[in-house]
Amino acid sequence: MRHLLMEEEEREENKIENEIKDMDFEESEESLLDNLKHYFDWDQKSKLGRAILIITSPLLLIEHATIHWAKDGKYMKQIYVLHPPAITLFIFFTLDCWTSEIIINGNTLGYWIYWVFPISFLLSLVIFLTASYRAPPKYNPIFIALGGIVSAMWIDFFANELVSCLGTLGKLFNISDAVMGLTIMAWGNSLSDLITDILISYRGYPAMVTSVVYSSPITHILIGLGISFIIKTSKEGPIILTTKGRYPDLTNTLWINFMFLLFGLILTLIVVPITGFRFNRFLGVLLLLIYLSSIALSLLDLFHVLPQTIFWIF
Predict the structure, then answer these.
(1) Where, by residue number, does the polypeptide cross the bilayer (predicted)?
(2) Residues 124-166: pLDDT tens digits?
(3) Torsion, Cα of 272, 276, 280, 282 (10° steps)
């Protein structure tokens, strides 16, 4: 009896496997254009949405080839196969390591790209032979993790490009380096974090954003200054900062930014418990006003509108 049941189960499993293979074959027979339309929800878009999709399709294909689109079960085998070589090229492009060489025991084995790129094509071949047309393979979590890393690299790449463009515009309009550093360069230094925070908050994780926003400056200030001071003082001895002279280390602008940062932290520490640990719109507007006030005062100081007073007292 048990033997008959096992045979029946095997027949059912074989039947299911054959049905899956038939469905895969039918789906593989669909044209690439039909698959792309289904993948990008062509039928659900308006005429304007379709026009935007056509215009942005080259960038979208590059994005989806480098990042596995796990949202809403999006999957297309033809794009999935492109992941290894596309991710490899994107990493080499963003890190600018085309000419990085493999050196073992003083012997040069050639550039990394000559070794890694062929391996990526072999991985694509493995994916093509093992992946289904209907569902992601079992090793899909690997590409989800890679997608997170590559997404961060995309954000950093666009942030750097945007800062470069803004810096060029600043040079064209003869904006001083001090103003550039206070505004554009300062924004560029935190632009990728800002974009990430907004996206995470938009997805419905405000608690995560709050933790990141307050822990990131702690990391930058304590670890960044700590490591920098250790390296600098170990080579040249104690650091002596000056407040006077033609190029002082501690400027009034730095003092203004420091005081506004301290004021914002203390204000948050007071207001949040009063409101029952709720971050409301009033607090958000208040923090933005504090930031704009610090920028305004710093610019007034840079343009010598404020009285020339040395705030740092030693």
Answers:
(1) 48-67, 79-103, 109-130, 142-159, 212-231, 254-275, 282-306
(2) 999 888 888 777 888 888 888 888 888 888 887 887 787 778 7
(3) -60
DSSP 71: G
| Residue 245 maps to a domain | yes
Side-chain half-sphere exposure of 24, counting CA atoms within 13 A: 17
- Give a yes or no: residue 206 inside a domain: no
Q: Residue 21: what are its φ and ψ, rounded to 5°?
A: -60, -40
CA distance 249 to 246: 10
The predicted-structure confidence for 8-24, as pLDDT tens digits, reads as follows 666 665 555 554 444 44
Q: 145: buried, middle or exposed (CB in 10 Å: 19+, 13-18, 0-12)? A: exposed
Among residues 179, 178, 184, the alpha carbon closest in space to that of 159 is found at 184
| Tally of domains in the chain | 1
> Is the pLDDT higher at 135 or at 242?
135
What pLDDT sits at residue 189? Answer: 67
Distance separating the N- and C-terminal Cα atoms of the chain: 95
Give CA–CA dist 179/269, Å, rounded. 30
**Does residue 18 lie in a domain region?**
no
* H-assigned helices in 32-138: 32-39, 47-66, 77-81, 83-95, 112-130
CA distance 210 to 279: 9
Residue 250 structural domain: 240-314
Average the pLDDT over each of 50-64, 97-111, 115-129, 170-184 and give the range with the smallest value: 170-184
pLDDT per residue as tens digits for the range 197-240:
787 777 777 778 778 777 777 777 788 788 878 887 887 778 77
Structure tokens at 269: 């520490």
What are the structure tokens assigned to 67, written together?
């990042």
What is the rounded distance in angstroms from the CA atom of residue 12 to the CA atom of residue 100? 54
